[in-house]
Amino acid sequence: MKVLKQRSTCPISTALDVLGDKWVLLILRDMVFAGKSTYGQFLQSAEKMATNILADRLAVLESQGILNKAVAADKKSKFTYRLTEKGVDTVPLIIELVLWGAKHCPTIIDPRLLAELQDEKAAAVEKYKQLARDMARA
Amino acid sequence: MKVLKQRSTCPISTALDVLGDKWVLLILRDMVFAGKSTYGQFLQSAEKMATNILADRLAVLESQGILNKAVAADKKSKFTYRLTEKGVDTVPLIIELVLWGAKHCPTIIDPRLLAELQDEKAAAVEKYKQLARDMARA
DNA sequence: TCAAAACACTTGCAAATTGCAAGTGAAAAT
DNA sequence: ATTTTCACTTGCAATTTGCAAGTGTTTTGA
């Protein structure tokens, strides 16, 4: 059981104690926007995270109740990671990261997705939260 | 001039290359919600960041165009750091961090601030963006 | 049925980053 | 003139990262 130290009682600081890590948020991105759920799928991302870092971050996220680990339905040797409701609640944060990155950094993004997030943010947040929930049940 | 390496062309990943750091976001928090603008003020936060880390992160934020450094109006030995519009645009992200932290972690927050952020998020985002802009002119 | 492949990690280690304490140098106050 | 304030810098031990290789179960396929 991974234990994180809380630096203060500030909500921002405490949120950052777990979410203030590049790899953690890329895992959440892959779950929300790419529907990924296994160790092998997370390793295939463009950012090439190291295997030990991935294992460590999955353990942190599980111990923090942001995702659940379970044996896959089809294979006993496979695990699936699913978002809890606490994990689903990071969707608005991830969407703000998309919007900031797309506006201020040189990046590549599907223009339709960007338009959807910009023009109907509240609806898009609900849509991706629900998608994340549906995947968690699958 | 600090150079950051971009891990991919994904907007989330690229945003995280600069914002995916606990100390960077605490500096932005202090500017937006506490109106801080000097090296000495940042050092006084509850999280006690080390002096060398603070100097490093301020240099990163300046080189990324998120804040500007200028000699203070009153004293030549003092610098003031102010948010650029790129920095002001992190306000929605910071507000999502507040909401997630307050909802899912044991933290302490003024109930009126929380209610304001929860019940009228869009208006609150605009309000704090404008406050941040006004401080940048002061 | 038995060897090979897939899958999810673990381990070892060099290199980079962090956190702490102390030091530096210029301007302000006394 | 001297002390204090302010904004850093430096040195160094300890932690964390990133890379490559290895381990131990399933599962697939001949």
Automatic annotation (TrEMBL), chains A, B:
It holds the Pfam family HxlR. Keywords: DNA-binding, Transcription, Transcription regulation. PROSITE patterns: HTH_HXLR (PS51118). InterPro entries: HTH_HxlR, WH-like_DNA-bd_sf, WH_DNA-bd_sf. Residues 10-109 form the HTH hxlR-type domain. One of its GO terms (molecular function) is DNA binding. This is Transcriptional regulator.
